[in-house]
Amino acid sequence: QKEVEQDPGPLSVPEGAIVSLNCTYSNSAFQYFMWYRQYSRKGPELLMYTYSSGNKEDGRFTAQVDKSSKYISLFIRDSQPSDSATYLCAMSAYTGRRALTFGSGTRLQVQP
Amino acid sequence: AAGVIQSPRHLIKEKRETATLKCYPIPRHDTVYWYQQGPGQDPQFLISFYEKMQSDKGSIPDRFSAQQFSDYHSELNMSSLELGDSALYFCASSLRGATNEKLFFGSGTQLSVL
Question: What is the pLDDT of residues B77-88, one digit of tens each?
Fold first, then answer.
């Protein structure tokens, strides 16, 4: 069983919809949680970073962490066609010079 | 602002050949990570370097080796290539002591083994 599970999608929504992306994890040592956006044949780009349970908001993006349930979510409000990409969750038990454990990514398509 | 530079962008090799991938971190970044992402797969951590020393090791095959040079650029050497090595190889860099959100990825090298 993988340490991080993520629904691969694809997820297709109309423009303006609220999108919910989710990951579950099994390693209770994970303390740092990230969401990356990856366009086709490009490197992952950091969207959100958090290390505490609760919500963190940045513009149209909200990251939610529930450590007791080992569950994290990314919400995208007022989704745009430019949000069409693969979204990867990533986690780490450490900060600094440590590798990240990624989910498999959810492919999102926002239809104009 | 300067980003992480990887070269080449695309590489086509045949089975049993060797390949060398290069990564140039963001200026002043001293830590480099290598990840392998197969088609439709999540990025898998291979190896990392801090101040030219290996700092962490993941699922890197014995056929692969890597090093970091005095100018902090890194090279991933891959020998006896197999079809299953076809993947997108990412390099990421960060600054000493930086937290996870300060990790920046390059655009990757797409390796195709025929």
Answer: 999 999 999 999
Q: What is the spatial distance between Cα B103 and Cα B61, in angstroms, rounded to a whole number?
A: 24
Give the integer Cα–Cα distance in Å for A38 and A87: 6
Query: Do A23 and A89 form a contact (C-beta atoms < 8 A)?
Result: yes
Per-residue tokens: B59: 């699922």
Query: Can you give the pLDDT of all 112 residues of chain A as single tens digits?
Result: 788 999 877 899 999 999 999 999 999 989 899 999 999 878 899 899 988 889 999 999 999 999 999 999 999 999 999 999 999 999 988 766 567 899 989 999 999 9
A99: which chain B residues are within 8 Å (Cβ-Cβ)?
33, 45, 48, 56, 58
**Nearest-CA residue of chain B relative to A44?**
B105
Partners of B4 on chain A (C-beta within 8 Å) are 43
A32 touches chain B (CB under 8 A): yes
| Nearest alpha-carbon partner for A4 in A92, A107, A112 | A92
Q: Give the bridge partners for B78, in sequence order.
A: B19, B64
